[in-house]
Specification:
- There is one protein chain.
- With 260 residues, the protein is mainly alpha-helical.
- The chain has one domain (38-257).
- It has nine helices and no strands.
- The chain has helices at residues 2-32, 39-49, 54-76, 85-123, 126-132, 137-175, 180-190, 193-219, 224-257.
- Helix 3 (54-76) runs antiparallel to helix 4 (85-123), helix 4 packs parallel to helix 8 and helix 4 (85-123) packs antiparallel against helix 9.
- The termini are far apart.
Length: 260
């Protein structure tokens, strides 16, 4: 009975939060197809989420490609198979690393900012003012961010793929003196378009998931400035765990559907 008294309120609160998130998501999808379509807000968010995030994506993907090539090259050298480094790095980046790392970087840079911005509007009663003026806050605040994330995440993932392979090329060919022709030949032979497409699908789903979670926590933030900080922290943690779980589910499905 003691454990029931402790756990039951937490279970009920978690179910209420899940139901609230479901209703928020349904309303957001409804507002996506309703007029007015504020494309200028989508363009503004594309600049914030996409263009301004390019430097951190370049740096993170370059270092990941270099580190992965360094470690994998040392292992494959025992089997005289150093030329496979580029193919292994490109395949791993395109299928898994690029979309996941891109999503994590964008959560840190943009996800917390989304939550804090919308949460501050809730704390200062700007969202209430929108409702008074018959402006749907979800359509005005959440929908542009979600659409921009769905569009920007795959593009940034493509950039991460290219830069990560360039980092691998630099370490393998320039530093470890792997044959350039063999490196490129193995890269072209083993990396298929379906590998890249699967990564883009994952990136788009992660963009939807991250932006929806972050907007949700910001929209329902309460408790003033402290509540906004708590909401931003929860949004980062939940969206980070969420994309890892979603990545496993999508990887399992794609292995059965696309790669069989």
């Amino acid at each position: 009975m003691k454990y029931r008294g402790v756990l039951l309120p937490k279970i009920i609160a978690a179910l209420e939060l899940l139901g609230q998130f479901w209703l928020f998501t349904v309303e957001m999808f409804k507002q996506m197809v309703r007029k007015p379509f504020r494309w200028y807000l989508v363009a503004e968010q594309l600049e914030k989420i996409g263009v301004f995030s390019i430097p951190i994506i370049l740096l993170s993907s370059l270092t990941i490609g270099m580190i992965f090539s360094l470690q994998l090259g040392s292992f494959l050298s025992m089997f005289r198979a150093e030329m496979l480094v580029g193919a292994a790095v490109a395949k791993t980046l395109s299928r898994e690393l690029a979309p996941v790392v891109t999503a994590l970087m964008l959560i840190a840079r943009n996800g917390s900012a989304m939550t804090a911005e919308i949460g501050t509007m809730r704390a200062t009663e700007q969202i209430d003012a929108m409702e008074t003026m018959s402006v749907n806050p979800i359509q005005y605040l959440a929908v542009p961010r979600v659409i921009a994330s769905i569009l920007a995440f795959p593009v940034l993932t493509a950039i991460a793929n290219i830069v990560g392979v360039l980092g691998s090329y630099f370490i393998s060919v320039m530093v470890r003196k792997v044959d350039k022709a063999g490196f490129l030949d193995q890269l072209y032979s083993y990396v298929d378009p379906v590998d890249i497409i699967s990564g883009f699908i994952k990136a788009a789903v992660m963009g939807l998931l991250v932006s929806t979670i972050c907007c949700f926590y910001g929209y329902y933030a309460k408790g003033g400035s402290r509540g906004v900080g708590d909401a931003a922290t929860k949004a980062v943690v939940v969206s980070s765990v969420g994309i890892l779980v979603a990545d496993y589910i999508m990887a399992d499905i794609m292995l059965k559907v696309l790669f069989d």
